[in-house]
Design brief:
The chain is of the alpha+beta class. The protein has 25 helices and 32 strands. Helix content is 41%, strand content 25%.
C-alpha cells in the first residue's frame, strides 16, 4: 500500500512548474514507443505516458484512441493523479477492491480494473507525471515488472529532460541572435582554401551593401580596408593563422559610398582534422560613433562573440570533461587563465580541470587525471566545493582574500600561482548540479558586467551538464532495461522449459543448457533425496568438446564433496553462495579426493555462484554456475536471476515428485476398486480399464458387475466428472453407494439411480457423475431381458448374433447424478436373443478433441461390425486398439457381456 499522500502535493507550485516545463516541449505521440515498451514489459494491453500539471495531458499511449494523446483531461478521478500524489509506484491488482482507487468513477463503473502507475520524477525531485499500464481483468503485478517500469520511467524522464534542455539551448541561441541584432554586430567567415570572405547581412550593411556578400580576400583588402591599415590587418591575421589562434584588430574600412568607418574585428582560426587552418570565423562592429568608448564596446563584442562560441560548442559537446576547456574560452574574455567544472556525484564532486591547470597538476604530481574527473569531497575547503555545496557564488579578487577565507588557497597559490578566483554554482530549475571556477594568476577587480558574464557562462554550463547527464542516464536506463529484459526473457524461457514435460531429468538438462552461457561458462545441477544424498541430474558447458570432461567431474564431486563444498553448504543452508575468486585452498577443502580436485582444476573455474532449488521451504537440489578468468563474477542482479531460476526449478522438481506420488496413489486407489467380474450362467463378462496417456492425471471412470440375491446380473458403467485423485476418490464413493443400494434393495436401475442421486446430495459428496445401470434377467418366454437406466451416460451398443450392430439410444438419457435429486428417471427395456453381445463404455472411447461424439459412436459401430466373429476378449482388445489413441487425455472403462447361445 502506498503511504498517505501529503496534502496539496498536486497543487504544489514548484511541482506544477516542473511539469509544465517538460510539457511545453513534449510533442504529443512522441512517447508512444515508450508506452508500447511499457505495455510489453508488463504484458498489459494498454499503457499511458502522461504529464500532470493542474490538468492531466497524455503525451504517449499504447492501444488507446489517438484522440487521447495531447488531450487535456481533469485530474479529479484519475488514477494517475493518485500516483502523483503518492509519489511512489501505485500497484493495484483490482481497483474496486483497493481503498486508494475504489472511490474513482472508473473503478466504480468497472472501466478501471488492474492498474500499475510509476511516477515520472524529475531531477529536481518533483513528480511531473506517470508511466501507467492497465489491464481490464484483475491481476497481480510482479515485483520485477514494477522494477522494470521504474527503470523505464527513468528513461522517459531522461527523454523529457533532453527535449526541455534542447529547447532551452535553442532559446539561448535565439536570444544571442537578438542581442547581436540589437548591437549591430556583423559576422564574417574566411575560407582559407578559397581565399574568400563571406559577410552576413549586418556585416555587409556596415560596408554599404544591401545583402550578404562574398568577396575575394585580395579585393576585400584592396577595396574595403583603409590603405594605412592594410599591412597591419594582414599581418595580424597571418599571425593568428600561423598560431591557430584568435585575434582582434581595430581598423578603418571603406564603404561603397567612399566614406570611412572605424571598426573592431575579432576572428578565430578554425583547423581541420589534420590540424591545418581551414577557416576564420569572426565578428565586426562599427565603433565610429563612439571612439571615446572604444574599449567598452570592444569588450562587449568580445563577450558576446565568446558567449556565442561557447553556446555553440557546448551544444555540440558529447562528454562533461569537454566542457572545462569550452567554458575557459568564455572566461578568457575577462583574462582568466584556467579553471574547471565540478559536477555533483553522489555525496561528492567530480572535478574536470581546464588545460592549463590540468597540465600544472601533471607537472607537480606526475599523475594522469582520470577522464571521469577527480573525486573531491563535498566540503568547504576550497571555493569550488563551497559554491557547489551552498549554491552561493564566491568571488576572491586577491590571493590574500582567498587565503583568509579558504586557508588551503595558500597551497594552491604556491603550487599553481592562482591569485584571483571566481566560483559560481551551476543550477537547473533551482537544483544544484555543481560549480564552475575561473582562475587568474594576477589580482582581478570584478566589475558588475564581469559577474554578469560569469553568471551567463555558468547558466550555459549548467544546461550542458544537465543535458549530458540526461543523455548518460538515458543510456544507462536503456542498458539497464535491456539487461532487465534479457533477465526476464531468461526467466520466461526457464518457466517454459520447466513446464514442457513431466520428465524432471529432461527439464533440468534443458535448464542447464539454457543458463549457459548467459549466466555461466558451465554449470551443473544436482538433486537431493529424502536422506540428503546428492544425485547428478544435469551438466552443460559452453564448449561442447568439454561437456564430457565436466560430466566426469560432477560424478566425482557428488560422491566426494566435503561439508565445506558449495553444494553441501547451499543444500544445508538453503541460501545462495557466491565465491568471486575461487582459490586452490578453497578447492582443496571442498574436494578431498585428488581425482575430483584435479578434474575441477582442469576446467579452470575462476568464480562460482551456487543457488538452491527450493520449494515449500525445502531445498531439493543445487544449481552451480561457474565462470573462467575471461568473465567477471556474477553481478548481484545476475545472482538474483539465478536464485529465481533455482526457485522455478525447485518448484518444478517438487511438482514432479508430488505428481508422481499422487498418480501412484490414485492409480492404486482406482485399480483397487475395479474388481473382477462375477461368473454368471447368462454368459461371459469381460472388463477393461485403460488409463489416460502418460503425463495425464488419473480419472473417475469405473465399471462394476455383481449378482443380486435374486440371481439377476447387475452391470454398471460410470464416469465421475474430473481427472485427478479427488475424482478417483469420488468415484469410489459413488460406486460403493450404487453397489450397496442396488444389492440391498433389488430395485430397478432407474430406482437405484434415483436413490444414489439422493444419497450423493444428502451426504454432501459435492460431485457429479454419469452412470448407466443395467440388469440382465431371464425372460418368461425365453431369451434375456436387458433393463437399464442412464444418468447422462453414452448408450449401450448391441451386437446381435447375426453381426448387426444397434445403438440403444431410442430415448435421450436422463440427467447426470449430482445435479437435481428430484428429477424423474425411467427404465428402458430390450429383449436380447441368445448369442447377443452388449457393450457398455465411458465417453473417452468415442469422444476426442479431433472428433465429435456422433463421429466416434459411428466408428465404434464400424469396429464392432467388423469384429463380430471374434471371441469376447479379442473383441474388446480390438475395439481399444482401433479407437483408443496412445496420447488420449481421458481414461476408458469397458464392460462387455456375451449371452450364451
Amino acid at each position: 500500500m502506498a503511504p498517505t499522500p501529503p496534502p496539496g502535493v498536486l497543487a504544489d507550485e514548484d511541482r506544477v512548474v516542473a511539469a509544465r516545463r517538460l510539457l511545453a516541449e513534449a510533442s504529443p505521440g512522441a512517447y508512444d514507443r515508450l508506452a508500447g515498451l511499457a505495455a510489453r514489459l508488463a504484458s498489459a494491453p494498454t499503457a499511458l505516458v502522461c504529464l500532470v500539471t493542474d490538468v492531466e495531458v497524455p503525451v504517449g499511449a499504447c492501444c488507446l484512441p489517438a484522440s487521447v494523446v495531447g488531450a487535456t483531461l481533469p485530474v479529479e478521478g484519475s488514477p494517475c493523479a493518485v500516483t502523483v500524489a503518492a509519489g511512489v509506484p501505485l500497484v493495484v491488482p483490482h481497483a474496486a477492491h483497493d481503498e486508494r482507487t475504489a472511490h474513482l468513477p472508473a473503478a466504480v463503473d468497472g472501466t478501471l480494473v488492474a492498474y500499475l502507475g510509476v511516477p515520472l520524477r524529475t531531477r529536481s525531485g518533483h513528480v511531473a507525471g506517470v508511466l501507467a499500464v492497465f489491464d481490464p481483468v484483475p491481476r497481480a503485478w510482479p515485483a520485477d515488472v514494477v522494477t522494470s517500469l521504474e527503470d523505464l520511467a527513468a528513461s522517459v524522464v531522461a527523454e523529457l529532460e533532453l527535449s526541455a534542455a534542447r529547447s532551452a539551448a535553442g532559446t539561448s541561441l535565439v536570444r544571442l541572435e537578438l542581442a547581436l541584432e540589437a548591437g549591430s554586430v556583423g559576422v564574417w567567415e574566411v575560407d582559407l582554401q578559397q581565399q574568400t570572405i563571406d559577410w552576413d547581412t549586418r556585416c555587409a550593411a556596415l560596408f554599404g551593401y544591401d545583402s550578404t556578400v562574398r568577396l575575394g580576400m585580395d579585393r576585400m583588402f584592396a577595396e574595403h580596408v583603409h590603405p594605412d591599415d592594410r599591412e597591419r590587418a594582414a599581418r595580424e591575421m597571418q599571425a593568428a593563422i600561423d598560431a591557430r589562434a584568435q585575434y582582434t584588430v581595430e581598423l578603418r574600412v571603406l564603404r561603397t559610398d567612399g566614406t570611412v568607418r572605424w571598426t573592431v574585428s575579432r576572428g578565430r582560426v578554425l583547423t581541420g582534422p589534420d590540424g591545418e587552418p581551414q577557416r576564420i570565423l569572426g565578428t565586426v562592429v562599427d565603433v565610429s560613433g563612439a571612439r571615446e568608448d572604444t574599449q567598452r564596446r570592444l569588450a562587449a563584442v568580445q563577450r558576446a562573440a565568446a558567449m556565442a562560441e561557447v553556446a555553440a560548442e557546448m551544444a555540440g559537446a558529447s562528454r562533461i570533461d569537454q566542457l572545462a576547456d569550452i567554458a575557459l574560452r568564455g572566461a578568457q574574455v575577462l583574462g582568466a587563465e584556467s579553471g574547471g567544472i565540478a559536477v555533483l556525484d553522489g555525496d561528492g564532486l567530480r572535478l574536470h580541470l581546464g588545460r592549463r591547470l590540468s597540465d600544472a597538476v601533471r607537472e607537480n604530481t606526475d599523475v594522469e587525471l582520470p577522464p571521469e574527473g577527480v573525486p573531491l569531497p563535498l566540503d568547504d575547503a576550497l571555493p569550488t566545493q563551497y559554491a557547489a555545496r551552498h549554491g552561493q557564488p564566491v568571488l576572491l579578487d586577491t590571493a590574500e582574500a582567498a587565503a583568509a577565507r579558504f586557508p588551503r588557497m595558500a597551497e594552491v597559490r604556491q603550487r599553481y600561482g592562482v591569485r584571483a578566483v571566481a566560483a559560481l554554482p551551476l543550477r537547473v530549475e533551482g537544483r544544484l548540479v555543481g560549480s564552475s571556477t575561473a582562475t587568474w594568476t594576477t589580482d582581478y577587480d570584478f566589475a558588475d558586467s564581469d559577474v554578469e558574464l560569469l553568471e551567463g557562462l555558468a547558466a550555459q554550463i549548467a544546461l550542458s551538464v544537465s543535458r549530458l547527464q540526461a543523455d548518460a542516464e538515458r543510456a544507462a536506463a536503456v542498458t539497464a532495461m535491456a539487461e532487465a529484459n534479457a533477465r526476464l526473457q531468461l526467466l520466461a524461457e526457464a518457466g517454459r522449459t520447466m513446464t514442457g514435460t513431466h520428465d524432471i531429468a529432461q527439464q533440468l538438462e534443458r535448464l542447464a543448457r539454457l543458463v549457459v552461457p548467459p549466466l555461466g561458462d558451465w554449470c551443473w545441477i544436482v538433486a537431493t533425496d529424502e536422506h540428503g544424498r546428492m544425485h547428478e541430474v544435469a551438466v552443460a558447458h559452453r564448449d561442447p568438446s568439454r561437456l564430457h570432461e565436466a560430466q566426469i567431474y560432477v560424478r566425482l564431486m557428488v560422491s566426494t564433496v566435503s561439508e565445506e563444498g558449495a553444494p553441501s553448504i547451499v543444500a544445508r543452508t538453503g541460501r545462495p553462495l557466491v565465491i568471486p575468486d575461487l582459490q586452490p585452498e578453497r578447492i582443496a577443502r571442498s574436494l578431498p579426493d585428488p581425482a575430483a580436485r584435479q578434474a575441477l582444476l582442469a576446467l579452470a573455474p575462476a568464480s562460482v555462484a551456487a543457488v538452491p532449488l527450493t520449494a515449500r521451504g525445502r531445498t531439493l537440489g543445487v544449481l552451480c554456475l561457474l565462470r573462467g578468468r575471461e568473465r567477471p563474477p556474477l553481478r548481484p542482479e545476475e545472482v538474483d536471476t539465478a536464485v529465481e531460476v533455482g526457485r522455478r526449478a525447485g518448484a518444478a522438481l517438487d511438482q514432479a515428485r508430488l505428481y508422481a506420488a499422487q498418480r501412484e496413489l490414485a492409480d492404486a486407489l482406482q485399480h483397487s476398486m475395479l474388481t473382477a467380474p462375477p461368473e454368471t450362467d447368462l454368459g461371459q463378462i469381460v472388463v477393461r480399464y485403460v488409463p489416460a496417456a502418460a503425463g495425464a492425471e488419473i480419472g473417475g471412470d469405473w465399471y462394476d458387475a455383481f449378482l443380486e440375491p435374486g440371481g439377476a446380473t447387475v452391470l454398471v458403467i460410470g464416469d465421475v466428472v474430473g481427472h485427478d485423485s479427488q475424482a478417483a476418490a469420488a468415484m469410489g464413493q459413488v460406486r460403493g453407494l450404487l453397489r450397496g443400494i442396488s444389492y440391498s434393495s433389488g430395485a430397478t436401475p432407474a430406482q437405484v439411480l434415483t436413490r444414489v442421486d439422493a444419497a450423493v446430495g444428502g451426504l454432501g459428496l459435492d460431485t457429479m457423475a454419469t452412470a448407466l445401470v443395467a440388469r440382465l434377467e431371464r425372460a418368461e418366454a425365453g431369451g434375456t431381458v436387458l433393463r437399464w437406466s442412464s444418468a447422462g451416460h453414452p448408450p449401450p451398443v448391441l451386437l446381435g448374433p447375426d453381426g448387426r450392430v444397434t445403438v440403444l439410444d431410442g430415448e435421450p438419457a436422463d440427467l447426470l447424478l449430482g445435479v437435481d435429486p428430484s428429477v424423474s428417471r425411467e427404465d428402458r427395456v430390450a429383449v436380447l436373443p441368445p448369442g447377443s453381445t452388449v457393450l457398455l463404455y465411458t465417453d473417452g472411447l468415442v469422444e476426442r478433441r479431433d472428433r465429435g461424439l456422433d463421429e466416434g459412436t459411428a466408428a465404434l459401430v464400424a469396429v464392432l461390425g467388423a469384429s463380430a466373429g471374434l471371441p469376447l476378449d479379442e473383441l474388446c482388445d480390438r475395439v481399444l486398439s482401433r479407437l483408443f489413441l496412445p496420447d488420449a487425455a481421458d481414461d476408458v472403462a469397458l464392460l462387455a457381456v456375451r449371452l450364451s447361445p
